[in-house]
Design brief:
29% strand; 8-stranded antiparallel β-sheet; alpha+beta; 4 helices
């Protein structure tokens, strides 16, 4: 399932980042999910409604402050795959995606594992490869894409 990777050059944030104290989502249901995930090292929260989730911490593109978001993911060959869509399917690109396009260095938590990694928008070939896996995990993504049309929901590759 691995597609050819594209290379993108980005600069690192210019200030020291306190990755250990990110802001959590303001929506109560997302904040509760994140808190349970963090407090249990992923034992409570990794599986959400039967699907695997990770916590992605990006740097806010305006303030430089870390912001943490729970996301459904697929995994392939050590890479984590997520879709840049809002949890409720609201049209538009979520702020976490705009953040990672400005600062691709991110923090990833999957279960108890936490790592500094890089995130990037998938190439068209990668998106085609992984779209089916993502919609198999969460069929509502098809509805999200229909609502977003003609805009294409970005697929994100997270890797070391």
């Amino acid at each position: 399932m691995r597609a050819q990777a594209a290379s993108h050059a980005h600069s690192a944030p210019s200030t020291t980042v306190d990755w250990d104290h990110p802001a959590d989502p303001p929506a109560p249901e997302l904040s509760t999910h994140v808190r349970a995930y963090v407090d249990s090292s992923g034992a409570d929260g990794h599986l959400w409604h039967g699907v695997p989730t990770l916590l992605l911490t990006t740097l806010d593109r305006l303030s430089g402050r870390p912001v943490r978001t729970p996301l459904i993911y697929a995994k392939d060959d050590g890479r984590h795959i997520v879709l840049a869509t809002a949890a409720d399917g609201t049209p538009g690109v979520p702020s976490w995606y705009r953040n990672l396009t400005a600062h691709p260095e991110v923090r990833l938590q999957v279960g108890a594992l936490t790592a500094q990694v890089r995130a990037r928008t998938a190439t068209p070939a990668e998106r085609e490869t992984y779209w089916e896996a993502m919609t198999a995990l969460w069929p509502a993504y098809e509805d999200h894409q229909a609502a977003a049309a003609p805009r294409e929901i970005p697929l994100v590759i997270i890797e070391r």
